[in-house]
Amino acid sequence: MSIPFSSSVQSGTLSGFYDPKFERVAEAFEKNYNERNELGASVCVTLDGDTVVDLWGGTARADNGQGWDSDTLSVVWSSTKGAVSFCAHVLASSGRLDLDAPVTDYWPEYGQNGKAATSVKMLLSHQSGVCAVSELLPLGAYADWDLMVQAIERQKPFFEPGTAQGYQALTYGWLVGELIRRISGQSLGDFFRKAIAEPLGIDFWIGLPSTYEPRTARMILPEPDLENFSPFTVAMTEPGSLQALALGNSGGYMDYGEEKVRNFDTQLAHAAEIGGAGGMTNGRGLAGMYAPLALGGSQNGVEYVSPDILARLGAVTSASNRDMTLLAPMRFSLGFFKAMDNRRAPPGMRDSMFLPEAAFGHPGYGGSVGFADPEARISFGYNMNRMGQGMLLNERGQSLIDAVYLSLGYRSRESGNWIR
Question: Residue 289 contacts by C-beta under 8 Å, 6 or more apart in sequence?
């Protein structure tokens, strides 16, 4: 039996329900507002395919006081990459995509400028070297799929494909998304909607219809941490650096638009199919997407990924003590993040994500996250509008994950992974 949840906090009302076993999650959710500066957010957890936590609340738009409702959507940044990766694995499971094949088998034009030997696996594992685009992109390029794909075709890799790891911060969506488009004949957003979102009944969009725009939250970028600048942040100030190009050269995606709103948070960007960062959903959508991946690859009689492919999703395929883009230690499976413990790294490089080793998923800039844990048979999703520090999780999202595993009887994450 689920327990209704209701609470008043400074930024509004919190609502939802939770299974009594997961009371700790509700307590952590409320604490995020009272002690950790949460403004608006949602969190959802499924266990064995059943929703055991579904909470939301606070303020969606600080400018007009609009409340955060059960169906509020927000930009989830790189958590979108998990949806793009899921699409690729749906195609792999049906035999239409060979993960070990050259990219040029599906996309011949990609082989320009030293990229001919790049495999699909390298794209998924952030080993392609196409971590950014060097040529100056025109205003609005982020919303022009063909323009971005052609720029990527011309791009020379920042390192020889397969010899290093460099996070494809924005380019990932076009790299993997163009493979999906070429194989399926559908745009990335259409394929995701028809193959995954609609069958699962989730409110998750890569390309948001305009009719949904009134339900969107307005994002608030994190305040600079003046005492703990990361090497990535410092490098972003250097014109022409990989880090500056990775986020800054997208045709104004991060700039302010005419209404003094960041371009990434406008209707134009929400409607664009930006697979590296622009997905629109909430905690329920993220948890719902990962639910079949927590249940062996199938749900309600539909197989989304085969057991053989699922076994590959949790296996580390790339790990580095210094990712070429993020300049910090990172670990990836085929399209997903793995748990990462950087607590003992120098200041500014301590971004971490504590999960059991079996789990895989994807965080987003500012702290959103979704993941599946096939051993615990849980899926998890969290999004918010007041973004936190760092490129992985901050205290708000991690506290919710910690509460989930404590509720399941796990005892410690001192090793860097949650263990029973």
Answer: 82, 83, 86, 196, 197, 200, 202, 204, 281, 370, 379, 381
Report the C-alpha gap between 384 and 392 in whole angstroms: 14
Q: Residue 61 in 3-state DSSP?
A: strand
Note the helical H segments in 155-296: 171-184, 188-192, 198-200, 231-236, 242-248, 267-271, 283-290
Query: What's the pTM value of the predicted model, to 2 decimals?
Result: 0.97
Going from the C-alpha of 31 to that of each of 217, 286, 353, 397, the distances in angstroms are: 21, 22, 20, 11
Tens-place pLDDT, residues 160-205: 999 999 999 999 999 999 999 999 999 999 999 999 999 999 999 9
Looking at CATH, the fold of the domain delimited by 3-82+192-407 is given as Beta-lactamase (3.40.710)
Separation of first and last alpha carbons in the chain: 25
Would you list the domain boundaries of the chain? 3-82+192-407
Q: Which two tokens stand for residue 216?
A: 């969107």
